Amino acid sequence: MFTSIRSMGLFGMQSYMVNVEIDVSGGLPHFDIVGLPNTSVSEAKERVRSAIKNSGLTFPVSRITVNLAPADTKKEGPVYDLPILLSVLAASRQIKPIPETSAFIGELSLSGEVRRINGALPMVIEAMHNGVADVFVPKENAYECSVVSGINVYPVETVSEIISFLDGTAEITPATYTPKEENFESLVDFADVKGQFEAKRALEIAAAGGHNILLIGPPGSGKSMLAKRIPTILPDMTFEESLETTKIYSVSGKLPADTPLITRRPFRSPHHTVSPVGLSGGGVIPKPGEISLAHNGVLFLDELPEFSRTTMEIMRQPIEDGVISISRAQATVTYPCSVMLVCAMNPCPCGYYGHPTRECSCPGGAAERYLNKVSGPLLDRVDIHIEVPPVDFGKLSDSEKGEKSSDIKERVNKARKIQQKRLAGSGITCNAHMTARQTREFCRMTDEAMQMLKDVFEMLSLSARAYDKILRVARTIADLDNSEIITDEHIAEAVQYRSLDRKFWGK
Ligand SMILES: Nc1ncnc2c1ncn2[C@@H]1O[C@H](COP(=O)(O)OP(=O)(O)OP(=O)(O)O)[C@@H](O)[C@H]1O
Ligand SMILES: [Mg+2]
Ligand SMILES: [Zn+2]
To answer: What's the sign of the alpha-carbon dihedral 405, 198, 215, 490?
Structure first.
């Protein structure tokens, strides 16, 4: 007898429908799975056999062939355990035929428990798009999947439970998503940082426009301290951004059990010893790396020159494109990685080059060489460079608190909303991602602003790339100022954030 049950597969973040077809016929007992399964799928045979027995049912003594269609796509992981088990039971008439509007995913334990899987969210979204009305997922994945509307998500804990449900002898309540009261209370706050007004202002602009930023300064000046507080002022995520980021965490199995939807922009700070695979992603069927886990959030590279040249080279293209492709012998997978890059570094190996009171002990030219280590691969992608000078003790001991993160965030949110409105339908949501053409289109300037930009351009002999960066940053400054037109004041401020052009490669 032939039956077919619907399920879903995953390739990177891309999900697709899979039909689990089964044929049970007479002949010598045999159990075979075809349709390009990898070993973890092939092992389903043993898990299904045991789970059936241990749930008090009978494994048929027949010739059983399971085909996972489409047969030309490689199948990975144990997600097909549950549909295979149900297909065996349906084909051997131990349960009623299963309607085509239902779909199933889940790994089985030998005792018949349904276990958590990775990537349930993109699979349920795909099921919904394909007209599936009821999807049955492991209980531990149900909350994560409940954010998808237009489909009933049934949490399943054991094989016995789902069989009783399919027979109509027991109920399972579909999972529902109740958005949590946003509680973004953070242990750190910009109010903790004394002084550093210029750096804070630069971070506010960066957060508002999604600009990549480099903080440069001597040891102990508070660069790491400032960077760690960036999450407290990042703009709220749109639902689409949340869903995209959540999918990445779902696929990589890193979604916290109590967080069905990631509503806070991620902040990832990989150590400089991070491996290329850890950063870009990898594995037989590649999983997302740090750069994708930071999607729609911040990728913070502290002590930037300590990262190897190879590591920086790997990041170059993805940071520009917002997507990363990982090629392996078996497959090429693409993951999104639209990140705001935040880098911190000392100006030279000893750290004190340009320090007001301490002497730099490095040999001549060391500061330039140090910067050159990072110049090509990454600095080209950075819109804002800011110097973080040491804070004098008088300011540090000052008990007066600085501005609170929540106040800064409010301004950031306002400025981001203006950008989203202006850029609606263009596929981007912030100024930093504007193409050269969009930059020309959306950065209207007053005559004075135009003249100032021209003067600065000639004075500093800036590249065309730097020109666009200044314009994009000026656009964000104008948005924070609620001004549709860019004025000379906005340009003047934006130019300040190109300190490296002026200082080191101003030529
Ligand atoms: N502006 C400031 N306000 C309050 N505390 C500060 C400030 N700057 C520095 N500190 C104190 O100094 C410590 C060291 O700062 P931080 O680690 O951020 O320096 P850094 O610039 O990252 O140095 P390094 O180059 O060595 O990494 C902080 O933990 C904090 O206690
Ligand atoms: Mg530091
Ligand atoms: Zn030095």
So the answer is: positive
